[in-house]
């Protein structure tokens, strides 16, 4: 097989640490910060699947909502789950929710991001993000992490109004780069995302930061690693 010509990264969980909100969550909800962050993330992804599946075949995709709105809805759910009082008195918790949403705009970036992106650029490899996030949301995250100039493309599924793992979402990578799926490496720390991209036809790197088993559906990723640096092995 020819060497790939581009690398597309998932954003949330892969370049940006979605659990870095846990410290603020712990300050706002003592003893429950980690649980809140986990429920928030799980519900966020559940909502993306719910709206995309429910819109299947619908001409105007009536259930689609931008990722920021789903993230906010997921946070509201998480707070109401861990703090039952919020269900009847949301106004008392709204300020805390706003703080957490503002923190989500500026998630911590993983430390090897810049090094890996610079190495790819030095080899002439096209780089980009392919994310569920909407364009404005991604733009803020990229600028906050200081990654401007290291990414050729910041691709949002918002253009097709379908979330990963829908094939149309992954196809945005081909459309924007002008390359075929066989010429693209897709990198994600989310096992379900790495699997969906593998099924789509991308070469894949699963960044298993949490030492978890891969999905038990019979299709492994092309490579597995514990950080982003392993993506360079595709070009050695």
UniProtKB/TrEMBL annotation:
List the EC numbers from the record. 3.8.1.2
A Pfam family this chain is assigned to: Hydrolase
Sorted keywords for this record are: Hydrolase
**CDD domains, A to Z:** HAD_L2-DEX
The Gene Ontology terms for molecular function here are: (S)-2-haloacid dehalogenase activity
InterPro entries hit by this protein = 2-HAD, HAD-like_sf, HAD-SF_hydro_IA, HAD_sf, PGP-like_dom2, S-2-haloacid_dehalogenase
Q: What chemistry does it catalyse, as a reaction equation?
A: an (S)-2-haloacid + H2O = a (2R)-2-hydroxycarboxylate + a halide anion + H(+)
Task: Specify the domain of life of the species encoding this protein.
Answer: Bacteria
Q: Does the keyword Hydrolase apply?
A: yes
User: What is the enzyme's main class?
Assistant: hydrolase
The family database entries (NCBIfam families) matched by this protein are listed as: HAD-SF-IA-v2, HAD_type_II
Q: Can you tell me which family this protein belongs to?
A: Belongs to the HAD-like hydrolase superfamily. S-2-haloalkanoic acid dehalogenase family.
Q: Under which name does UniProt file this protein?
A: (S)-2-haloacid dehalogenase
């Amino acid at each position: 097989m020819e060497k790939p010509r581009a690398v597309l990264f998932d954003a949330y969980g892969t370049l940006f640490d979605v659990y870095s909100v846990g410290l603020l969550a712990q300050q706002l909800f003592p003893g429950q910060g980690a649980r809140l962050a986990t429920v928030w993330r799980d519900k966020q992804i559940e909502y993306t699947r719910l709206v995309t599946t429910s819109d299947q075949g619908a001409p105007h995709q009536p259930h689609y909502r931008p990722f920021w709105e789903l993230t906010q809805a997921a946070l509201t759910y998480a707070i109401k789950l861990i703090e039952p009082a919020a269900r009847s008195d949301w106004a008392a918790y709204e300020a805390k929710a706003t703080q957490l949403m503002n923190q989500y705009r500026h998630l911590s970036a993983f430390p090897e991001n810049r090094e890996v992106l610079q190495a790819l650029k030095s080899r002439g490899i096209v780089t980009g993000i392919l994310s569920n996030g909407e364009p404005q949301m991604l733009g803020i995250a990229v600028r906050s992490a200081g990654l401007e100039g290291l990414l050729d493309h910041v691709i949002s599924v918002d253009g097709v109004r379908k979330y990963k793992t829908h094939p149309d979402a992954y196809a945005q990578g081909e459309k924007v780069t002008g390359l075929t799926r066989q010429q693209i490496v897709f990198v994600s720390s989310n096992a379900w995302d790495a699997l969906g991209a593998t099924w789509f036809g991308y070469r894949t790197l699963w960044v298993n930061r949490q030492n978890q088993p891969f999905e038990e559906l019979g299709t492994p990723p092309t490579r597995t690693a514990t950080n982003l640096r392993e993506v360079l092995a595709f070009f050695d």
